[in-house]
Amino acid sequence: MLLAVKKRAIQKDIQRYRKRLGKEKRLQYYLSLARLYEMAEDLKSAEQVLREASERFPELSSVKVALAHVLNELGQPEDARQLLEPVLSQDKDNLLAARRLAESYEQSGNLEKALETYRSILRFRLVGQEVKGQIERLERLVSAGKKREARGDSSFVGLPTVSLAKLYMDQGHFAEAIKIIDRILSVDPGCQECKEIRALAQSSLEKAAAGKAETFFPAEEKADREAREKADQEAKERAERESQAKVEREARERAEREARQRAEQLAREESERLAKEKAEQLAREQAEREARKKREREAAIANAVEHDLATWGRLRAWLDAGSA
């Protein structure tokens, strides 16, 4: 009953985050949706979401690490390793990427390389007992594998993943053995040996759950959950920083745009003022010219009248002289 309720709650959260992503392509939404798909055991959908996030945020290593984890869970360790190795070449202190790379080596059957990678993690101060437990477990697996090779166990030749499942069985790690076998069966459903190993591992796991055996899987699951939660928190903080930077950038751009518009407005006003002053100057000059011309006409008229009066005076004087 509780499991059904949990599944319904997960599906409801999935729908909610899908709607959020439809409105806004935020990194936090991608990572949360992918995690929900993992919880719903829909790894293909989780892969699809993370690949879309990787295309939208190609510079973020957290997306690549999350995608690599899903690829490991899907039984594609080679693809996961192609994502993780460039991340670690650029950031050698990426603890989570190093852990995922170790997991991909282990799933590929390269236990010695996985052990080497886990040992390289020991330089981090935050490494806990869980990683040290992984190293001890792999040391036992590598030792057991070498002993089998020394005995000439031909069943391990050419079957690295089946070999790895058997080694897990020998060491009591039944849940890990089942995961390996399930991936083999997804490719080769007719593998009878795999079916027999899986049945034995399932039976042993049920006994372990009843307290009759021991497995490291719960501790590993807790450590993985803590690592994912830490990665989610870092992604959330990074997204918040990016969002704040975006807000600040938009505010700066808005202020610059307003300043530019104000400058353009002032320039237009100055241009209009100069044009108005020039028009007024031209009008004054025109008025002065017209006034000057008027004065010149009045002066010319006055001169003509004065000349006519002088001429009339001389004529009258001459007439007066003639009549006398």
Describe the structure.
Helix 4 (61-73) runs parallel beside helix 6, helix 5 runs antiparallel to helix 6 (95-107) and helix 6 (95-107) packs antiparallel against helix 7 (111-121). This protein has a domain at 152-238. The chain has helices spanning 2-23, 27-39, 43-56, 61-73, 77-90, 95-107, 111-121, 129-150, 160-171, 174-187, 192-209, 217-323. By secondary structure, the protein is mainly α. Mean pLDDT is 81; it is low at 154-160 and 212-221. The protein starts with a helix and ends with a helix.
Strand content: under 5%
Strand and helix order = HHHHHHHHHHHH
Percent helix among the residues? over 70%
Strand count, sense and closure of the main sheet? none
Number of helices in the DSSP assignment: 12
Indicate the structural class.
Answer: mainly alpha
Rounded to the nearest angstrom, the radius of gyration is 46 Å
Shape: rod-shaped
What integer is the average pLDDT?
81
Report the strand count. Answer: 0
Low-confidence stretches: 154-160, 212-221
Calculate the terminal CA-CA distance, rounded to whole Å. Answer: 155 Å
